[in-house]
Amino acid sequence: GGKDRRSGLILTIPLCLEQTSMDELSVTLDYLLSIPSEKCKARGFTVIVDGRKSQWNVVKTVVLMLQNVVPAEVSLVCVVKPDEFWDKKVTHFCFWKEKDRLGFEVILVSANKLTRYIEPCQLTEDFGGTLTYDHMDWLNKRLVFEKFTKESTSLLDELALINNGSDKGTQQEKERSIDLNFLPSVDPETVLQTGHELLSELQQRRFNGSDGGVSWSPMDDELLAQPQVMKLLDSLREQYTRYQEVCRQRSKRTQLEEIQQKVMQVVNWLEGPGSEQLRTQWGIGDSIRASQALQQKHEEIESQHSEWFAVYVELNQQIAALLNAGDEEDLVELKALQQQLSDVCYRQASQLEFRQNLLQAALEFHSVAQDLSQQLDGLLGMLCVDVAPADGASIQQTLKLLEEKLKSVDLGLQGLREKGQSLLDQISNQASWAYGKDVTIENKENVDHIQGVMEDMQLRKQRCEDMVDVRRLKMLQMVQLFKCEEDAAQAVEWLSELLDALLKTHIRLGDDAQETKVLLEKHRKFVDVAQSTYDYGRQLLQATVVLCQSLRCTSRSSGDTLPRLNRVWKQFTITSEERVHRLETAVAFHSSAEKVLQECPEQPEAFNEIEQFDEIEAVGKSLLDRLTVPVVYPDGSEQYFGSPSDMASAAEHIREKMKLVSLKKQQLRQPEAATPES
């Protein structure tokens, strides 16, 4: 990379301690001298022979060899000597005396004095200069350049042969020529990339391995390599562009032929075996299992079609790509292929979808029919079991369940009709994809089957409805029977409560006649309530007898309820009569007592008969005695009104009034006794 003061190139020959092969050195020099241009060679070379690590004999041999290798180009040879070892040997051979014979000047110089002849900026660091130089980097780039030159030249010849062959002869000759030379020996993209990288390296004006960012001037060989690389790259790009077009045309023709072949394969299969598979599938099955088997068979057919549909999708994408980037001469053919392929595939897909929908509708129809059949079986089984009367609530629950089942059957039958009608509508459209085949017979079988299932379900449902009506009437009568029995028992309870209230709370006899009369009136109303309760119970028991006769069953409770009702009513009647008798006696007592107590003592004529007081006392005593007597029932049992303290309180009030009457009687007797004395 360095230059001498005459602008000639500097050639450095480093020698080492090992034996130097003159042949290899000669070949190397020949190679290096072939790199610069003739213009550079005309300016001459300055050769630096670095003999600091070599022997004098080797140095002398190298210098003499330069005479044979580059005599005309060498202007100056600088032999870099060691500091001490060659002084005596040099006296035996003086280079300066051989200048005329050698053809160039030879000087012997130390490394530190080499700058006398060459500028330091043109010398490398090995000789005390500042020129930045990386030999391995130069060598690597040179090897890349040599490889690129060799490969690009060979590739250009191959591409030219391929491209020129495609431009001559008939179409058949074109294809034959392209077939023989279609693939180059090396990848054009790789060679172009190598060339661009090499050119970029040459244009960087910097060694890749330099440190510190020191600038350097490119060597003449690199400046010479740049136009060569650029020229080769231009030629390669031109030939490669033509080659790509040839390949594109060939690929397009090959792809078009492959597409045509695949399109016909898809069309032939879909219109042949594929359509035949669908022609043989017309039934809908007569049960869920049969419909599922047909669906499974249809899925196998769809699976086979899916493989061809996948090919269709791929072909459609390829055709679309060719239409977007194709030539006008291919557009008509490509569109025709695309239209033919799409028509066949869409028609076949529609038929598959129609068949799948038909089978799905059939499966749903049979599923609804099976569910409805099971519901009818359950309802019939429920109706065939005799009703075991337990209580009204259970009968009501059973009746509610029966109504729910009947409603569910109604909904199921309605759903079956809807599914059946939808299926019939689809079957009526089956002829649209039958490819001319008469499917009337097959469709008639399917239609008859569907209508037969719906009619059968309708008849079964009607029979169940009739049985439900009978069962509903019977269960309603049973509910009424249980209700009557429960109400009759409740009437007995109410009557028992009235009797209990009569005995425990209806105790008071009144403090005077007026109050006693009020109590007596209330008691009569109380008795009317009890009478109504008894009559209500009797009517309910009579209704149970009628219902039992209608249901042909024996009531479990009415036989016991009637005697209980009569017994309680008899007890209530006896108790009520006793209560009335006591109240009436109390009214008579209070009325008589109040009458005599209110009379003035100045009217003795009102009491002419003293027996009146005796009658009042007798009534009072009788009432007191009655309070201590229990009520005796026909079965011999006894019941008292209220508690003993209640009776004692009522008796005490009567005794007090009897005392007042007795006192009044004594007062009336005293005047009578005084009259005879006077």
From TrEMBL:
Coiled coil: none annotated. It comes from the Eukaryota. The keyword Repeat applies. Residues 1-135 form the CRAL-TRIO domain. PANTHER family: SEC14 DOMAIN AND SPECTRIN REPEAT-CONTAINING PROTEIN 1 (PTHR46607). Belongs to the SOLO family. This is SESD1 protein. The lineage of its organism: Eukaryota, Metazoa, Chordata, Craniata, Vertebrata. The gene is Sestd1.
